Amino acid sequence: MLALAKTRAGPGAELVERPAPTPGDGEVLLRMEAASICGTDQHLYAWDDWAAENMVPPRIMGHELAGTVIGTGNAVTRVKEGDLVGVESHLFDWTCAQCRRGDMHLCRNVRVIGVHVDGGFAEQFVVPEANAIESNGLDPAVVALQEPMGNAVHAAFAEPIEGRSVLVTGCGPIGLCALGIAKAAGAALVIATDTEAYRLELARTMGADLALDAADPATEEQISQATGGDGVEVVLEMSGAAPALAQALSAVTRGGSISLLGIFGEPPQVDLSELVIMKGLRLHGIYGRRIYDTWERTQSLLRSGALDVSPIITHRLTLADWEQGFDLIASRNAGKVVLVP
Question: Which domains does the chain have, with CATH numbers?
């Protein structure tokens, strides 16, 4: 079978031939229907410090996945052949204190599909049945998008957002999902900021009431005016950019909340005394998806018709055209790029 793999330590990737895998006990064999490219895949492709610390090549990449079940191992009881499933990308051990209390997304011994074990940029791949989420009836590209969308669902619902003003900083695919989620959940005002005109236009498509250039000195004043001088009640920080965090801390109202999902390349400088403690803010660190609660919420939003994420999926390419897909992501002139068989 064809698979996109990191065959060695260093920049790059290769399309290789590999034997089709066989499902073991408790595992399901999937035929890939859609697999989207993530920022994590870019890190692995570029082979930065994070990649070098976390992956031991050779390894098949890919963790935002949709597949049809074509085989099952012993003890598989829930999914069946023919099911279309999404994939929870975090492998949890069920034994640590975090898993025992129901926080499997925070498993102390977590491993990531496509990083620590072979992933789904391949014609076939295996995952534990526990990580296969039935998604029958959805577009396979949307099924694959559920994994990053789940991050946005987790961040958005850290606190109630209905009837509140919401600022989303960073309009990559997860930020764009967050905009649609906030609108679907009944937020009174949804503001988006980014530095790319292409992404701001996508933000408008996803329902942002205001889409503002974060680099414009007038942006903070525009946010203030839009909120009657009070500031936004909820911030969903999706960019991992220090200037965006500074803008968020300035724009949020006293007693507001910030969900922090973006990963910062360098530790940001924050005046905790003035901007967090004295403002009485609540900060939520968001990692991954709550398993399985977030998946249930994500599917409810998609199946209800309240949220249409199709505008976020801007490109569909074959697995053989993977290089074009990575170039599109690097250009920042793309939403979600999906690879198909």
Answer: 2-150+289-340 (3.90.180.10), 159-285 (3.40.50.720)
